[in-house]
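Researcher: Can you fold this with cobalamin in place?
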Amino acid sequence: MDLDDTPDLVVIQVYITSADRAYTLADYYRQRGAYVCLGGLHVTSLPDEAAAHADTIFLGPGEDIWPAFLADLRAGRPGAIYRSEVRTLAGVPRIRRDLIKRHLYLVPNSIVVSRGCPHVCDFCYKEAFFRGGKSFYTQAVDDALAEIERLPGHHLYFLDDHLFGNARFAEALFDGMRGMGRLWQAAGTVKSILQPGLLEKAVASGLRSLFVGFETLNPANLRDQHKYQNLNRDYNAAIRRLHALGVMVNGSFVFGMDSDDETVFDRTVEWAVSQGIETATFHILTPYPSTALYQRMAAQSRLLHSRWDLYDTRHVVYQPAHISPATLEEGYWRAYRDFYRWSSILKGAWAKDGWPERLRHVAYAGGWKKLEPLWDGIIRAKRATQMLPVLETVLSGFGTHAPNRKLSNRHDENIGEPPLEVLV
Ligand code: B12
Ligand code: SF4
Protein backbone atom coordinates (compact mmCIF):
# COMPACT_ATOMS: atom_id res chain seq x y z
CA MET A 1 0.00 0.00 0.00
CA ASP A 2 1.11 3.52 -0.73
CA LEU A 3 0.95 5.09 2.71
CA ASP A 4 2.26 8.45 1.50
CA ASP A 5 -1.02 9.38 -0.10
CA THR A 6 -3.30 12.04 1.33
CA PRO A 7 -6.89 10.96 0.72
CA ASP A 8 -9.82 13.05 1.92
CA LEU A 9 -11.88 10.02 2.75
CA VAL A 10 -10.70 6.56 3.86
CA VAL A 11 -13.24 3.71 3.82
CA ILE A 12 -12.30 0.35 5.31
CA GLN A 13 -14.21 -2.92 5.52
CA VAL A 14 -13.29 -4.70 8.76
CA TYR A 15 -13.41 -8.46 9.18
CA ILE A 16 -12.33 -9.90 12.52
CA THR A 17 -8.98 -11.18 11.27
CA SER A 18 -8.15 -7.84 9.67
CA ALA A 19 -9.36 -5.69 12.58
CA ASP A 20 -5.91 -4.90 14.01
CA ARG A 21 -4.55 -3.89 10.64
CA ALA A 22 -7.69 -1.90 9.83
CA TYR A 23 -7.47 0.05 13.10
CA THR A 24 -3.77 0.76 12.54
CA LEU A 25 -4.49 2.16 9.09
CA ALA A 26 -7.50 4.09 10.36
CA ASP A 27 -5.46 5.73 13.14
CA TYR A 28 -2.66 6.54 10.71
CA TYR A 29 -4.94 8.27 8.21
CA ARG A 30 -6.86 10.15 10.86
CA GLN A 31 -3.57 11.56 12.10
CA ARG A 32 -2.92 12.74 8.54
CA GLY A 33 -6.23 14.56 8.49
CA ALA A 34 -8.34 12.11 6.49
CA TYR A 35 -11.98 11.39 7.34
CA VAL A 36 -12.17 7.69 8.23
CA CYS A 37 -15.19 5.38 7.81
CA LEU A 38 -15.25 1.83 9.16
CA GLY A 39 -17.93 -0.78 8.43
CA GLY A 40 -18.49 -4.49 8.00
CA LEU A 41 -18.93 -7.55 10.16
CA HIS A 42 -16.51 -6.80 12.95
CA VAL A 43 -17.59 -3.18 13.31
CA THR A 44 -21.18 -4.33 13.56
CA SER A 45 -20.21 -6.86 16.24
CA LEU A 46 -18.19 -4.40 18.32
CA PRO A 47 -19.22 -0.83 17.47
CA ASP A 48 -17.63 0.75 20.54
CA GLU A 49 -14.27 -0.79 19.79
CA ALA A 50 -14.38 0.41 16.17
CA ALA A 51 -15.72 3.88 16.98
CA ALA A 52 -12.46 4.70 18.77
CA HIS A 53 -10.68 4.49 15.40
CA ALA A 54 -13.17 6.17 13.07
CA ASP A 55 -15.05 9.37 12.37
CA THR A 56 -18.07 7.38 11.23
CA ILE A 57 -18.99 3.74 11.73
CA PHE A 58 -21.54 1.71 9.79
CA LEU A 59 -23.54 -1.14 11.25
CA GLY A 60 -25.04 -3.87 9.07
CA PRO A 61 -25.32 -4.01 5.29
CA GLY A 62 -24.15 -0.94 3.41
CA GLU A 63 -26.66 -0.59 0.59
CA ASP A 64 -28.95 1.87 2.42
CA ILE A 65 -26.54 3.62 4.80
CA TRP A 66 -23.65 4.41 2.49
CA PRO A 67 -25.71 6.64 0.15
CA ALA A 68 -27.30 8.25 3.22
CA PHE A 69 -23.84 9.03 4.62
CA LEU A 70 -22.63 10.48 1.29
CA ALA A 71 -25.65 12.78 1.15
CA ASP A 72 -24.95 13.96 4.72
CA LEU A 73 -21.26 14.40 3.96
CA ARG A 74 -22.04 16.55 0.93
CA ALA A 75 -24.39 18.58 3.08
CA GLY A 76 -21.55 19.06 5.56
CA ARG A 77 -23.16 17.15 8.45
CA PRO A 78 -21.99 13.52 8.46
CA GLY A 79 -23.20 11.46 11.42
CA ALA A 80 -21.00 9.40 13.72
CA ILE A 81 -22.95 6.18 13.33
CA TYR A 82 -25.22 4.77 10.63
CA ARG A 83 -27.29 1.68 11.30
CA SER A 84 -28.85 -0.22 8.38
CA GLU A 85 -32.60 -0.58 8.57
CA VAL A 86 -33.80 -0.91 4.99
CA ARG A 87 -33.00 -4.39 3.77
CA THR A 88 -33.36 -4.67 0.04
CA LEU A 89 -31.17 -5.21 -3.00
CA ALA A 90 -33.61 -3.44 -5.31
CA GLY A 91 -32.04 -0.54 -7.16
CA VAL A 92 -28.48 -1.38 -6.15
CA PRO A 93 -26.22 0.21 -8.79
CA ARG A 94 -24.25 -1.95 -11.21
CA ILE A 95 -21.11 -3.33 -9.66
CA ARG A 96 -18.03 -1.49 -10.97
CA ARG A 97 -16.31 -4.66 -12.16
CA ASP A 98 -14.07 -2.58 -14.39
CA LEU A 99 -12.19 -1.68 -11.18
CA ILE A 100 -11.28 -5.33 -10.53
CA LYS A 101 -7.81 -6.35 -11.71
CA ARG A 102 -9.08 -9.57 -13.16
CA HIS A 103 -5.70 -11.02 -14.11
CA LEU A 104 -4.76 -11.27 -10.41
CA TYR A 105 -7.56 -13.68 -9.58
CA LEU A 106 -8.13 -17.34 -10.30
CA VAL A 107 -11.82 -16.63 -9.81
CA PRO A 108 -12.52 -13.13 -11.10
CA ASN A 109 -16.25 -13.82 -11.51
CA SER A 110 -17.37 -13.90 -7.89
CA ILE A 111 -20.96 -12.85 -7.40
CA VAL A 112 -23.50 -12.48 -4.56
CA VAL A 113 -27.21 -12.46 -5.37
CA SER A 114 -28.62 -12.66 -1.85
CA ARG A 115 -27.73 -11.59 1.66
CA GLY A 116 -27.78 -13.70 4.80
CA CYS A 117 -29.43 -17.06 5.32
CA PRO A 118 -32.80 -18.36 6.54
CA HIS A 119 -31.21 -20.47 9.30
CA VAL A 120 -29.89 -19.51 12.73
CA CYS A 121 -26.77 -21.34 13.87
CA ASP A 122 -25.21 -20.25 17.15
CA PHE A 123 -21.66 -19.96 15.82
CA CYS A 124 -22.55 -17.97 12.69
CA TYR A 125 -21.92 -14.25 12.16
CA LYS A 126 -25.34 -13.85 10.61
CA GLU A 127 -27.82 -13.05 13.39
CA ALA A 128 -25.58 -10.44 14.98
CA PHE A 129 -24.83 -8.78 11.66
CA PHE A 130 -28.41 -8.50 10.41
CA ARG A 131 -29.95 -7.54 13.78
CA GLY A 132 -32.63 -4.88 13.41
CA GLY A 133 -33.95 -5.98 10.01
CA LYS A 134 -34.40 -8.86 7.61
CA SER A 135 -31.61 -11.42 7.82
CA PHE A 136 -32.26 -13.13 4.51
CA TYR A 137 -33.23 -11.48 1.24
CA THR A 138 -32.45 -11.88 -2.43
CA GLN A 139 -32.03 -9.78 -5.53
CA ALA A 140 -34.83 -9.73 -8.07
CA VAL A 141 -34.24 -12.75 -10.34
CA ASP A 142 -33.96 -10.55 -13.45
CA ASP A 143 -31.37 -8.32 -11.79
CA ALA A 144 -29.32 -11.35 -10.78
CA LEU A 145 -29.53 -12.79 -14.29
CA ALA A 146 -28.52 -9.46 -15.83
CA GLU A 147 -25.49 -9.34 -13.52
CA ILE A 148 -24.54 -12.87 -14.57
CA GLU A 149 -24.96 -11.97 -18.25
CA ARG A 150 -22.45 -9.17 -17.80
CA LEU A 151 -19.75 -11.56 -16.58
CA PRO A 152 -17.33 -12.82 -19.24
CA GLY A 153 -16.27 -16.44 -19.72
CA HIS A 154 -17.82 -19.57 -18.23
CA HIS A 155 -16.90 -19.79 -14.57
CA LEU A 156 -18.84 -18.22 -11.69
CA TYR A 157 -18.39 -18.46 -7.95
CA PHE A 158 -21.47 -17.57 -5.90
CA LEU A 159 -20.39 -16.25 -2.47
CA ASP A 160 -23.93 -16.37 -1.06
CA ASP A 161 -24.21 -18.00 2.34
CA HIS A 162 -27.00 -20.20 1.06
CA LEU A 163 -27.83 -19.81 -2.60
CA PHE A 164 -30.63 -22.36 -2.25
CA GLY A 165 -32.14 -20.68 0.83
CA ASN A 166 -35.20 -19.35 -0.99
CA ALA A 167 -36.32 -22.22 -3.21
CA ARG A 168 -38.58 -20.08 -5.40
CA PHE A 169 -35.81 -17.59 -6.09
CA ALA A 170 -33.23 -20.33 -6.66
CA GLU A 171 -35.46 -22.24 -9.02
CA ALA A 172 -36.19 -19.17 -11.14
CA LEU A 173 -32.50 -18.23 -11.14
CA PHE A 174 -31.40 -21.69 -12.26
CA ASP A 175 -34.09 -21.80 -14.94
CA GLY A 176 -32.89 -18.42 -16.19
CA MET A 177 -29.25 -19.54 -16.22
CA ARG A 178 -29.99 -22.66 -18.19
CA GLY A 179 -28.28 -22.49 -21.54
CA MET A 180 -25.97 -19.64 -20.53
CA GLY A 181 -22.99 -21.99 -20.78
CA ARG A 182 -21.89 -21.46 -17.20
CA LEU A 183 -19.90 -23.63 -14.84
CA TRP A 184 -20.46 -22.57 -11.28
CA GLN A 185 -19.66 -23.24 -7.64
CA ALA A 186 -21.60 -22.20 -4.55
CA ALA A 187 -22.58 -23.10 -0.99
CA GLY A 188 -25.69 -24.96 0.16
CA THR A 189 -27.07 -26.98 3.05
CA VAL A 190 -27.60 -30.72 3.35
CA LYS A 191 -31.33 -30.03 3.57
CA SER A 192 -31.40 -28.17 0.26
CA ILE A 193 -29.45 -30.93 -1.49
CA LEU A 194 -31.99 -33.51 -0.44
CA GLN A 195 -34.89 -31.36 -1.64
CA PRO A 196 -36.34 -32.98 -4.78
CA GLY A 197 -35.94 -31.08 -8.04
CA LEU A 198 -33.93 -28.03 -7.00
CA LEU A 199 -30.52 -29.65 -7.29
CA GLU A 200 -31.33 -31.01 -10.73
CA LYS A 201 -32.16 -27.49 -11.91
CA ALA A 202 -28.93 -26.18 -10.41
CA VAL A 203 -26.94 -28.83 -12.23
CA ALA A 204 -28.71 -28.16 -15.53
CA SER A 205 -27.65 -24.52 -15.21
CA GLY A 206 -24.01 -25.42 -14.54
CA LEU A 207 -23.46 -26.31 -10.86
CA ARG A 208 -20.32 -28.46 -10.69
CA SER A 209 -19.03 -28.12 -7.12
CA LEU A 210 -20.82 -27.30 -3.88
CA PHE A 211 -19.53 -26.21 -0.48
CA VAL A 212 -21.66 -28.09 2.06
CA GLY A 213 -21.82 -27.23 5.78
CA PHE A 214 -21.82 -30.70 7.36
CA GLU A 215 -20.01 -29.16 10.36
CA THR A 216 -20.19 -32.24 12.61
CA LEU A 217 -21.19 -35.90 12.49
CA ASN A 218 -22.53 -35.71 16.05
CA PRO A 219 -26.25 -34.83 16.49
CA ALA A 220 -25.60 -33.59 20.06
CA ASN A 221 -23.27 -30.94 18.61
CA LEU A 222 -25.88 -29.92 16.05
CA ARG A 223 -28.47 -29.50 18.81
CA ASP A 224 -26.04 -27.50 20.95
CA GLN A 225 -25.38 -25.10 18.09
CA HIS A 226 -29.05 -24.92 17.08
CA LYS A 227 -28.10 -26.19 13.63
CA TYR A 228 -31.42 -27.98 13.36
CA GLN A 229 -31.51 -28.00 9.55
CA ASN A 230 -28.79 -30.67 9.59
CA LEU A 231 -30.42 -32.86 12.24
CA ASN A 232 -31.69 -36.25 11.12
CA ARG A 233 -30.48 -35.67 7.58
CA ASP A 234 -28.75 -38.48 5.78
CA TYR A 235 -25.34 -36.99 4.97
CA ASN A 236 -24.34 -40.04 2.92
CA ALA A 237 -27.47 -39.74 0.79
CA ALA A 238 -26.76 -36.05 0.18
CA ILE A 239 -23.27 -36.87 -1.08
CA ARG A 240 -24.49 -39.74 -3.24
CA ARG A 241 -27.06 -37.40 -4.77
CA LEU A 242 -24.46 -34.73 -5.55
CA HIS A 243 -22.03 -37.22 -7.02
CA ALA A 244 -24.72 -38.92 -9.10
CA LEU A 245 -25.41 -35.54 -10.69
CA GLY A 246 -21.72 -34.86 -11.32
CA VAL A 247 -21.30 -32.27 -8.55
CA MET A 248 -18.09 -32.31 -6.53
CA VAL A 249 -18.32 -31.75 -2.79
CA ASN A 250 -16.33 -29.34 -0.61
CA GLY A 251 -17.27 -30.54 2.87
CA SER A 252 -17.03 -28.04 5.72
CA PHE A 253 -16.33 -29.38 9.22
CA VAL A 254 -15.96 -27.66 12.58
CA PHE A 255 -13.86 -29.22 15.35
CA GLY A 256 -14.13 -28.44 19.05
CA MET A 257 -17.85 -28.39 19.74
CA ASP A 258 -18.76 -29.44 23.23
CA SER A 259 -19.48 -33.10 22.45
CA ASP A 260 -16.20 -33.56 20.57
CA ASP A 261 -13.36 -35.55 22.09
CA GLU A 262 -9.95 -36.44 20.69
CA THR A 263 -11.43 -39.10 18.38
CA VAL A 264 -13.32 -36.53 16.32
CA PHE A 265 -10.49 -35.78 13.88
CA ASP A 266 -9.81 -39.30 12.64
CA ARG A 267 -13.50 -40.23 12.56
CA THR A 268 -14.40 -37.18 10.50
CA VAL A 269 -11.56 -37.64 8.01
CA GLU A 270 -12.24 -41.36 7.62
CA TRP A 271 -15.88 -40.69 6.91
CA ALA A 272 -15.14 -37.87 4.44
CA VAL A 273 -12.62 -40.01 2.55
CA SER A 274 -14.92 -43.04 2.51
CA GLN A 275 -17.67 -40.90 0.98
CA GLY A 276 -15.43 -39.66 -1.83
CA ILE A 277 -15.68 -36.03 -0.76
CA GLU A 278 -13.30 -34.25 -3.11
CA THR A 279 -12.18 -31.34 -0.94
CA ALA A 280 -12.65 -30.55 2.73
CA THR A 281 -12.41 -27.35 4.72
CA PHE A 282 -11.75 -27.85 8.41
CA HIS A 283 -12.28 -25.17 11.05
CA ILE A 284 -11.64 -24.86 14.74
CA LEU A 285 -14.82 -23.65 16.43
CA THR A 286 -14.49 -19.88 16.82
CA PRO A 287 -16.82 -17.74 18.92
CA TYR A 288 -17.19 -14.52 16.94
CA PRO A 289 -18.15 -11.56 19.13
CA SER A 290 -21.89 -10.92 19.38
CA THR A 291 -22.86 -14.45 18.35
CA ALA A 292 -24.91 -16.68 20.64
CA LEU A 293 -21.87 -18.94 20.91
CA TYR A 294 -19.68 -16.05 22.07
CA GLN A 295 -22.20 -15.04 24.71
CA ARG A 296 -22.42 -18.60 25.98
CA MET A 297 -18.62 -18.94 26.15
CA ALA A 298 -18.29 -15.57 27.86
CA ALA A 299 -20.95 -16.49 30.44
CA GLN A 300 -19.02 -19.69 31.16
CA SER A 301 -15.70 -17.77 31.36
CA ARG A 302 -14.23 -19.98 28.64
CA LEU A 303 -12.80 -17.31 26.34
CA LEU A 304 -9.01 -17.36 26.44
CA HIS A 305 -8.27 -13.92 24.95
CA SER A 306 -9.44 -11.22 22.55
CA ARG A 307 -6.57 -11.25 20.05
CA TRP A 308 -8.84 -10.91 17.06
CA ASP A 309 -6.17 -11.83 14.50
CA LEU A 310 -6.16 -15.32 16.05
CA TYR A 311 -9.94 -15.66 15.67
CA ASP A 312 -9.24 -17.17 12.27
CA THR A 313 -10.62 -20.70 12.78
CA ARG A 314 -7.05 -22.05 12.82
CA HIS A 315 -6.35 -21.21 16.47
CA VAL A 316 -8.15 -22.23 19.65
CA VAL A 317 -9.42 -19.12 21.40
CA TYR A 318 -11.67 -20.75 24.02
CA GLN A 319 -11.48 -23.59 26.51
CA PRO A 320 -12.90 -26.71 24.82
CA ALA A 321 -15.10 -29.02 26.93
CA HIS A 322 -13.32 -32.38 26.58
CA ILE A 323 -9.96 -31.73 24.93
CA SER A 324 -7.08 -29.42 25.55
CA PRO A 325 -6.54 -26.45 23.22
CA ALA A 326 -3.23 -28.01 22.13
CA THR A 327 -4.89 -31.33 21.20
CA LEU A 328 -7.57 -29.45 19.29
CA GLU A 329 -5.07 -27.46 17.25
CA GLU A 330 -2.90 -30.48 16.61
CA GLY A 331 -5.93 -32.54 15.56
CA TYR A 332 -7.08 -29.79 13.21
CA TRP A 333 -3.75 -29.73 11.33
CA ARG A 334 -3.59 -33.53 11.34
CA ALA A 335 -7.05 -33.69 9.77
CA TYR A 336 -5.82 -31.56 6.86
CA ARG A 337 -2.70 -33.67 6.45
CA ASP A 338 -4.62 -36.94 6.61
CA PHE A 339 -7.40 -35.85 4.29
CA TYR A 340 -5.03 -34.59 1.62
CA ARG A 341 -2.42 -37.35 1.68
CA TRP A 342 -2.16 -39.17 -1.66
CA SER A 343 -3.46 -42.42 -0.17
CA SER A 344 -6.64 -40.62 0.98
CA ILE A 345 -7.08 -38.84 -2.34
CA LEU A 346 -6.78 -42.14 -4.21
CA LYS A 347 -9.12 -43.89 -1.76
CA GLY A 348 -11.65 -41.08 -2.16
CA ALA A 349 -11.34 -41.28 -5.94
CA TRP A 350 -11.86 -45.03 -5.80
CA ALA A 351 -15.22 -44.46 -4.07
CA LYS A 352 -16.43 -43.04 -7.40
CA ASP A 353 -18.16 -45.11 -10.06
CA GLY A 354 -16.34 -44.33 -13.28
CA TRP A 355 -12.84 -43.42 -14.42
CA PRO A 356 -13.69 -39.86 -15.54
CA GLU A 357 -15.08 -39.18 -12.03
CA ARG A 358 -12.00 -40.69 -10.42
CA LEU A 359 -9.67 -38.67 -12.59
CA ARG A 360 -11.60 -35.50 -11.79
CA HIS A 361 -11.38 -36.27 -8.07
CA VAL A 362 -7.60 -36.73 -8.21
CA ALA A 363 -7.08 -33.64 -10.36
CA TYR A 364 -9.26 -31.40 -8.17
CA ALA A 365 -8.14 -32.57 -4.71
CA GLY A 366 -4.50 -32.93 -5.75
CA GLY A 367 -4.57 -29.67 -7.69
CA TRP A 368 -5.61 -27.65 -4.65
CA LYS A 369 -3.49 -29.09 -1.92
CA LYS A 370 -0.59 -30.91 -3.50
CA LEU A 371 0.40 -28.06 -5.76
CA GLU A 372 0.38 -25.27 -3.17
CA PRO A 373 3.95 -24.11 -3.96
CA LEU A 374 3.02 -23.93 -7.64
CA TRP A 375 -0.06 -21.83 -6.82
CA ASP A 376 2.12 -19.57 -4.72
CA GLY A 377 4.42 -18.99 -7.68
CA ILE A 378 1.53 -18.39 -10.05
CA ILE A 379 -0.07 -15.86 -7.70
CA ARG A 380 3.23 -14.06 -7.16
CA ALA A 381 3.79 -13.95 -10.92
CA LYS A 382 0.30 -12.36 -11.20
CA ARG A 383 -0.84 -15.07 -13.56
CA ALA A 384 -3.67 -16.60 -11.52
CA THR A 385 -6.32 -15.96 -14.12
CA GLN A 386 -4.35 -17.94 -16.71
CA MET A 387 -5.12 -21.06 -14.66
CA LEU A 388 -8.86 -20.53 -14.99
CA PRO A 389 -9.16 -22.76 -18.09
CA VAL A 390 -7.53 -25.56 -16.08
CA LEU A 391 -10.07 -25.11 -13.28
CA GLU A 392 -12.89 -25.09 -15.83
CA THR A 393 -11.57 -28.25 -17.48
CA VAL A 394 -11.49 -30.07 -14.16
CA LEU A 395 -14.92 -28.79 -13.11
CA SER A 396 -16.33 -29.96 -16.39
CA GLY A 397 -14.86 -33.41 -15.75
CA PHE A 398 -12.66 -33.17 -18.88
CA GLY A 399 -15.74 -32.69 -20.99
CA THR A 400 -18.01 -35.23 -19.30
CA HIS A 401 -19.88 -32.44 -17.43
CA ALA A 402 -19.33 -29.61 -19.89
CA PRO A 403 -21.45 -26.44 -19.82
CA ASN A 404 -24.44 -26.73 -22.08
CA ARG A 405 -23.69 -23.75 -24.29
CA LYS A 406 -20.56 -21.90 -25.19
CA LEU A 407 -19.97 -18.20 -24.83
CA SER A 408 -17.66 -16.27 -27.07
CA ASN A 409 -14.37 -15.22 -25.50
CA ARG A 410 -15.52 -11.90 -24.23
CA HIS A 411 -12.75 -9.62 -23.11
CA ASP A 412 -12.45 -7.49 -20.02
CA GLU A 413 -13.28 -4.32 -21.92
CA ASN A 414 -16.70 -5.75 -22.67
CA ILE A 415 -17.77 -5.95 -19.04
CA GLY A 416 -20.78 -3.76 -18.60
CA GLU A 417 -21.69 -3.91 -22.28
CA PRO A 418 -24.40 -6.12 -23.71
CA PRO A 419 -23.06 -9.68 -23.94
CA LEU A 420 -21.94 -11.06 -27.27
CA GLU A 421 -22.89 -14.70 -27.36
CA VAL A 422 -22.17 -17.38 -29.92
CA LEU A 423 -24.51 -20.33 -29.93
CA VAL A 424 -22.98 -23.69 -30.75
C1 B12 B 1 -15.98 -15.20 0.22
C2 B12 B 1 -15.47 -15.34 1.62
C3 B12 B 1 -14.11 -15.60 1.78
C4 B12 B 1 -13.17 -15.74 0.58
C5 B12 B 1 -12.78 -14.36 0.05
C6 B12 B 1 -12.61 -13.33 1.10
C7 B12 B 1 -12.34 -11.95 0.53
N1 B12 B 1 -11.30 -11.34 1.06
O1 B12 B 1 -13.04 -11.49 -0.34
C8 B12 B 1 -11.99 -16.55 1.18
C9 B12 B 1 -12.25 -18.02 0.91
C10 B12 B 1 -10.61 -16.20 0.69
C11 B12 B 1 -12.19 -16.28 2.68
C12 B12 B 1 -11.20 -16.46 3.59
C13 B12 B 1 -11.36 -16.25 4.95
N2 B12 B 1 -12.51 -15.99 5.60
CO1 B12 B 1 -14.16 -15.63 4.68
N3 B12 B 1 -15.89 -15.40 3.94
C14 B12 B 1 -16.32 -15.23 2.73
C15 B12 B 1 -17.85 -15.04 2.73
C16 B12 B 1 -18.48 -16.41 2.42
C17 B12 B 1 -18.44 -14.01 1.79
C18 B12 B 1 -17.86 -12.59 1.91
C19 B12 B 1 -18.62 -11.67 1.01
O2 B12 B 1 -18.13 -11.30 -0.04
N4 B12 B 1 -19.86 -11.30 1.38
C20 B12 B 1 -20.73 -10.51 0.57
C21 B12 B 1 -20.59 -9.02 0.86
C22 B12 B 1 -21.58 -8.25 -0.01
O3 B12 B 1 -20.95 -8.81 2.20
P1 B12 B 1 -19.98 -8.10 3.24
O4 B12 B 1 -18.57 -8.46 2.90
O5 B12 B 1 -20.43 -8.39 4.60
O6 B12 B 1 -20.19 -6.55 2.93
C23 B12 B 1 -21.41 -5.89 3.26
C24 B12 B 1 -21.50 -5.32 4.67
O7 B12 B 1 -20.64 -5.95 5.59
C25 B12 B 1 -21.28 -3.86 4.55
N5 B12 B 1 -19.93 -3.34 4.67
C26 B12 B 1 -18.76 -3.95 4.72
N6 B12 B 1 -17.77 -3.07 4.86
C27 B12 B 1 -18.30 -1.86 4.87
C28 B12 B 1 -17.71 -0.61 4.96
C29 B12 B 1 -18.54 0.51 4.94
C30 B12 B 1 -17.95 1.85 5.05
C31 B12 B 1 -19.95 0.35 4.78
C32 B12 B 1 -20.82 1.52 4.68
C33 B12 B 1 -20.52 -0.91 4.72
C34 B12 B 1 -19.69 -2.00 4.76
O8 B12 B 1 -21.74 -3.57 3.25
C35 B12 B 1 -21.54 -4.69 2.36
C36 B12 B 1 -22.75 -4.77 1.47
O9 B12 B 1 -23.92 -4.91 2.25
C37 B12 B 1 -18.08 -14.62 4.23
C38 B12 B 1 -19.45 -14.93 4.76
C39 B12 B 1 -20.36 -13.75 4.46
N7 B12 B 1 -21.51 -14.04 3.97
O10 B12 B 1 -20.00 -12.60 4.61
C40 B12 B 1 -16.93 -15.32 4.95
C41 B12 B 1 -16.33 -14.65 6.19
C42 B12 B 1 -16.20 -13.19 5.92
N8 B12 B 1 -15.00 -15.22 6.29
C43 B12 B 1 -14.60 -15.37 7.52
C44 B12 B 1 -13.33 -15.89 7.89
C45 B12 B 1 -13.12 -16.14 9.37
C46 B12 B 1 -12.34 -16.15 6.94
C47 B12 B 1 -10.95 -16.73 7.19
C48 B12 B 1 -10.22 -16.23 8.42
C49 B12 B 1 -11.12 -18.24 7.21
C50 B12 B 1 -9.85 -19.02 7.31
N9 B12 B 1 -9.76 -19.81 8.34
O11 B12 B 1 -8.99 -18.93 6.48
C51 B12 B 1 -10.21 -16.32 5.90
C52 B12 B 1 -9.58 -14.92 6.03
C53 B12 B 1 -9.09 -14.41 4.71
C54 B12 B 1 -8.54 -13.02 4.78
N10 B12 B 1 -7.25 -12.91 4.98
O12 B12 B 1 -9.26 -12.05 4.68
C55 B12 B 1 -15.67 -14.97 8.51
C56 B12 B 1 -15.37 -13.60 9.15
C57 B12 B 1 -15.87 -13.47 10.57
C58 B12 B 1 -15.83 -12.06 11.04
N11 B12 B 1 -16.59 -11.78 12.10
O13 B12 B 1 -15.15 -11.22 10.52
C59 B12 B 1 -16.94 -14.99 7.59
C60 B12 B 1 -18.07 -14.06 7.99
C61 B12 B 1 -17.47 -16.45 7.54
C62 B12 B 1 -17.83 -16.99 8.89
N12 B12 B 1 -17.08 -17.93 9.36
O14 B12 B 1 -18.77 -16.64 9.54
N13 B12 B 1 -13.45 -15.86 2.95
S1 SF4 C 1 -26.65 -22.40 7.65
FE1 SF4 C 1 -24.59 -21.52 7.42
S2 SF4 C 1 -24.92 -19.37 6.82
FE2 SF4 C 1 -26.87 -20.16 7.60
S3 SF4 C 1 -26.93 -19.52 9.75
FE3 SF4 C 1 -26.06 -21.61 9.68
S4 SF4 C 1 -23.83 -21.35 9.52
FE4 SF4 C 1 -24.79 -19.37 9.07
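Model: Folded with cobalamin in place. Residues 407-424 have pLDDT under 50 and may be disordered.
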